[in-house]
Amino acid sequence: RSLEMIIGILGVLKAGGTYMPIDPAYPAERIQYMLEDSGARLLLVQKKAMIPEAGAAEKTLIWDEIDWTQEEKTNLVNISRPEDVAYIIYTSGSTGKPKGVMVEHRNVVRLLFNDRNLFDFSEHDVWTLFHSFCFDFSVWEMYGALLYGGKLVIVPSLVARDPKAFLDLLRREGVTILNQTPTAFYQLSQEEMKRVEADLMVRKVIFGGEALAPVQLKAWKNKYPSTQLINMYGITETTVHVTYKEITEQEMETNVSNIGQPIPTLKVYVLDEQKRLVPIGVKGEMYVSGDGVSRGYLNRPELTAERFVENPFVPGERMYKTGDLARWLPDGNLEYLGRIDHQVKIRGYRIELGEI
Fold this sequence. Notes:
Layout: H1 3-14, H2 28-38, E1 42-45, E2 59-62, E3 85-91, E4 99-104, H3 105-112, E5 126-129, H4 137-146, E6 151-154, H5 157-160, H6 163-173, E7 177-180, H7 182-192, E8 204-207, H8 218-223, E9 228-231, E10 243-246, H9 249-254, E11 258-262, E12 266-271, E13 284-290, E14 296-297, H10 301-307, E15 308-310, E16 318-328, E17 334-339, E18 343-346, E19 349-352
Parallel strand pairs: 1-2, 5-6, 7-8, 8-9
Antiparallel strand pairs: 3-4, 4-14, 9-10, 10-11, 11-17, 12-13, 13-16, 15-16, 16-17, 18-19
Helix pairs in contact: 6-7
């Protein structure tokens, strides 16, 4: 979590490359697998000590050993196309090996810019980069701030784990857009309720990564009634977010995990095992179609064909089989009902039990 990481990511993209974030805290075996499976040609590390022992890419660049004053300063000519892969993020795999999701430039751009945008982000907003680069919530945080000309505050990992220290940062930096997994926010809210002063500048809290219990938001809403609390269901394979629901007092009273409706450019189907639409109120599996559906899994054609399937309702279009259960509510919103398989989520991280 550093300024250099942001510079590195933007540099890779401007050079026409694809970036693949690797957490140095990952087990050596997982790092080696990611490097080998991705066929990475270039490895960018901060220090020499961070180079993996078990082999690396064709070429390694050590940030601290480069004399940047001697490098070319002119702006690069853009060679990237909308259909080029912008990043690969590895998620847990049920076979014991993680799988790399290939997300294209156009998938990301339409998430933040479309003709029916649900958000009013601007250059006056201050965002936090709270999440790991290996968790795609960080994609939303980073580009949400930078593409709108806002300010991005990089949260040190130790601060991210300390609710009191993180609240101090929110005050000090005047943060206006806060993105949180529900688990992290519950702890943050408990800490904030110890203070009498209501002096935070946060105007939107956006939840993602795991199921939300709206009843847990009551205290925050009472203290900060003007703050929008927005629940967004999403998956790496469909580019961060899929649905949008502003949480009101009604949801807090019923405590239903209401994930709302599909965001612009996406469509959600709730289907039975034969891929038939189910009636309102009936449980089924969610399938997602539209411009956020990514290219698929790197080097996994069979798995890509299994999960990225033909849309029976729109010829020539693909849809992603999520493995998540939901049902339509009478008001047109979706209620999240959990997984169809043995995948679990811890602090927003997808974990396939088969990988353990």
